[in-house]
Specification:
Elements (H helix, E strand, L loop, with lengths): L31 H20 L4 E8 L2 E9 L14 E2 L4 H14 L29 H4 L23 H7 L18 H14 L3 H13 L20 E3 L10 E3 L4 H4 L6 H4 L2 E2 L1 H12 L13 H7 L4 E5 L13 E4 L4 E5 L2 E10 L2 E8 L4 E7 L4 H15 L11 H28 L13 E5 L3 E10 L6 E8 L6 E8 L2 E4 L9 E8 L2 E9 L14 E4 L1
Antiparallel strand pairs: 1-2, 1-12, 3-6, 4-5, 7-8, 8-9, 9-10, 10-11, 11-12, 13-14, 13-20, 14-15, 15-16, 16-17, 17-18, 18-19, 19-20
Helix pairs in contact: 1-11, 2-5, 2-6, 11-12
């Protein structure tokens, strides 16, 4: 998942962020200026975490090749033990830059070319637009420019599913492509799964074996895991979120899992978002990025040419007239390169990527012109907090806060969160009101039951279930996403031929199901998320169901 600013809780969390003791930060290498900058960032992070009631935050800051701050703040879970700089976090789509580094290593070795068709390495690769089959290159896979809609295909592995990597690849030819080739940016995790398979095909190793052997081990990242299935809950920050009422991302903050893998098992989609790490290890990744692939001992993981290419823009994400007093961080142009976003920030080049998983949001930022980079990992879904961390830390590192804060990112984030929550609560009331006033379906409930098949997802079963006896006898519908454990629950009447779910697992997003009726029988159905705040990876809207 990528970094996204979601609207969050209407109620303030009661959590207090308690800081741990300062770990060893390599101060033998730090200048007085670096120590002052680290102290400013430390103060800012504490303030931001407390303002948003964050259970835990971890931060790494690297300057001139040395970590000047690697620290964990807060607790593993509400009411639990304190974290430290070695506590593990799921960092989701920050993984994408590692996948692109793996490809870069193979390019240096002559085993892969960025602009070679994917079919050179994966002969069976095909798409729902056959005319693209021989045109899509390796660079296209990692640039979000093929034309898939936002989050297309994510239901293959989000929320936790049971598909293998091979099954995900087999579904790709059926996932709809909604836009023109290489014209518009649409974030697509699915193509990074394919990119990981290019790594495997060219190297003879699985994606995770390759990044372990060729990146993690040489960097000495001994505490990092390419996929989360082996993450020890005892040394992990546990996921937190808001499960309502009235909708997901509202209500009181709570622990939503007892391990990372309980809420985030992307082992089959690891190349898109599998990494679990901590600030001590991730500081080493930031350092080698800033040093363009070279280790302190002079060894190269990838060439400087490949490093420059990974930061070269491939598609425009957005553009604007630039900063304003109310939007001081707005870029004139934001682009996507190769596993990184590249944009301008306060007149300088900023290279970044984020990651979002259930219960976790994180980000990595590089300011190459200053030879400095940083990361922030959190164990809750407070998007406005991570917005504040990204921009507030950048402002400190760029020296714009020495005479007082140029912009109060924390206060502005709290304001935007509260305004968004108000809109979300209003939207939730409208959804409930429409259901209360909704028309009855035109057919008996049993008529909608059956196996409904989508070309890329597979089968969704709707069954009629009768409970009670006599006057208390009731028939209702039950919906089952057969390949996704959590997406199972009652299907309620909503308005006419539209029904809605209320999944018992409130960590998940409910969906509307709208049937098309012809000649007195339902023949097809479409879906969309109930909540306007639903994460885009619930790509229900891409399903096209017909009765099996």
């Amino acid at each position: 998942m990528t970094f996204r600013l979601t609207r969050r809780a209407a109620l303030a969390s009661s959590a207090v962020c308690a800081a741990t003791a300062l770990p060893s930060l390599g101060h033998a290498h730090a200048t007085n200026d670096s120590a002052d900058v680290a102290a400013q960032i430390d103060t800012f992070v504490r303030r931001a975490a407390e303002a948003f009631g964050q259970p835990a935050v971890s931060v790494a800051v690297v300057k001139d090749g040395q970590p000047i701050l690697t620290r964990g703040y807060g607790v593993r879970a509400l009411g639990g033990a304190a974290i430290d700089e070695h506590t593990l976090f799921a960092i989701a789509s920050n993984t994408k830059a590692v996948t692109c580094a793996a490809l870069s290593i193979l390019i240096d070795e002559g085993k892969v070319k960025w602009d070679e068709p994917v079919r050179t390495y994966l002969p069976g690769f095909s798409l729902s637009k056959p005319e693209l089959n021989d045109m899509v290159t390796v660079r296209d896979l990692v640039s979000h420019r093929i034309g898939f809609g936002l989050g297309a295909g994510d239901l293959l592995f989000w929320p936790n599913g049971d598909r293998t990597r091979a099954e995900i690849m087999a579904a790709i030819p059926h996932v709809p492509i909604e836009d023109s080739f290489r014209t518009t940016y649409h974030y697509c995790n699915l193509m990074f799964v394919a990119a990981g398979e290019v790594v495997a095909a060219a190297s003879g190793m699985s994606w995770e074996e390759f990044v372990q052997a060729r990146i993690l081990t040489p960097l000495g990242m001994t505490e990092t895991l390419p996929v989360m299935t082996d993450a020890d809950p005892a040394t992990s920050a546990l996921p937190h979120g808001r499960l309502g009422p009235p909708l997901r991302y509202q209500g009181e903050l709570q622990t939503i899992g007892q391990s990372i893998q309980e809420v985030w098992d992307w082992s089959a989609a690891g190349a898109a978002g599998g990494f679990v790490t901590n600030p001590v290890d991730w500081a080493k990744w930031i350092a080698v990025q800033l040093n363009k692939g070279q280790l302190p001992n002079g060894q190269r993981l990838w060439s400087e040419a490949r490093a420059n290419e990974m930061w070269r823009p491939n598609i425009i994400v957005s553009n604007s007239a630039g900063p304003t007093p109310d939007l001081p961080g707005r870029s004139i142009a934001a682009t996507y390169a190769t596993g990184w976003q590249v944009m301008d920030y306060r007149g300088e080049r900023l290279i970044t990527h984020g990651g979002g998983a259930p219960g976790y949001i994180s980000g990595t930022v590089l300011l190459p012109g200053r030879n400095v980079g940083y990361s922030y990992f959190t164990n809750a879904e407070e998007g406005m907090l991570t917005r504040a961390l990204r921009s507030g830390i950048a402002d400190i590192l760029m020296g714009s806060t020495r005479n007082g804060p140029a912009f109060d990112w924390v206060a502005d984030g709290v304001r935007l969160r509260d305004e968004g929550n108000a809109r979300s609560i209003e939207a939730a009331a409208e959804i409930d009101a429409k259901q209360a006033a909704g028309a009855a379906p035109s057919l008996p409930l049993e008529a909608y039951a059956g196996t409904w098949r989508d070309p890329w997802y597979g089968d969704i079963v709707i069954s009629a279930r009768t409970t009670g006896r006599g006057r208390n006898r009731r028939t209702g519908l039950h919906l089952d996403f057969t390949r996704t454990k959590a997406l199972k629950g009652p299907l309620e009447t909503y308005d006419g031929e539209t029904f809605r779910t209320r999944f018992p697992d409130r960590r998940e997003e409910d969906t509307f199901v709208t049937f098309k009726v012809e000649n007195g029988a339902p023949v097809s159905a479409t879906m969309k998320a109930v909540s306007p705040d639903a994460d885009f990876s619930y790509d229900y809207q891409d399903l096209r169901l017909t009765k099996a």
